[in-house]
Amino acid sequence: MFPFGTFGPSEPRDIYTGLPPIDKAQINFSSTTPFTPTYVKSNVTRTSEPARIYASRVQGRQVLLENPARESRSKKKREEKKAIRLAEKAKRDAAVMGRRDARRADMWRLSPSETRYQLFLPLHTLWLGYMSELLALPPPTSLGADVPSAIPNVAATHAKLVKADFHGAIVAVRQSKNPCLVNLTGLVVHETENAFKVITKNDELKLIPKQNSIFMLPIPMFSVGSSQSPAMTAAAPPAPRCSDTDQTETACITVLDIPHMEFELYGNQFCFRAAERAGRKFKHKETIEL
Predict the structure, then answer these.
(1) Is the pTM of this model over 0.85?
(2) Could you tell me the strand order of the sheet in which 260-266 lies?
(3) Which domains are assigned to the chain?
């Protein structure tokens, strides 16, 4: 607030002084001489540079006249509930089923006719191609060359394996506190946070807990896929394939039938869902005994 009237540097200023009498005076404002700068500069008489004072302290400043009204807690809760309802509606519209809904609908429950090892071998074939691309495995032509030099970097392989998807992989229990699980081998059809659900060669569905278990994971040593040149085909290992006419166990070749590497997975440090592992940063730790 600025006092009315013009006073000298030594004269006292009375903020309650009335307006000066104006008799038939016409006030003209223009863009070149606006009212506010002119009024401020004319009343700042204690400085020799009123224009500089106005530019540094007044021009462009915003004065908050009163405190803004705070939003009530009930309004925030209503907005949060509304956002949750909109998110659930968008998920329903997108036909995305959550874990709880899938569990209620028994989406992961296999019927006896679906619990067949041969039925999921094509999934294993897709997983081998996926691992070949993920780990950038060398072509099979390296078989005739130096085999140790063709083995990929183990440290880089570990970092990629902990983030990989294991649906379709073949895992075996190497050690476990439960002796009934040792040497149990099967094809992973469903991975949860705390367990692997596998199908054995005897067409049995087994649920293997990750806790207190050490798993063996075989990985192909060379790339497996159908996009190979004729020169590579002669030296290539037999690619996993399934016959449409013969559904016996010998009709399909798995990763155990070709040159492969074996990695150990410590279940105590692996209790995460596949989606969580993809974005999680794992740290190097010492070997943990069961």
Answers:
(1) no
(2) 205-209, 195-199, 185-191, 170-176, 213-220, 260-266
(3) 76-103 (no CATH), 110-278 (2.30.30.210)
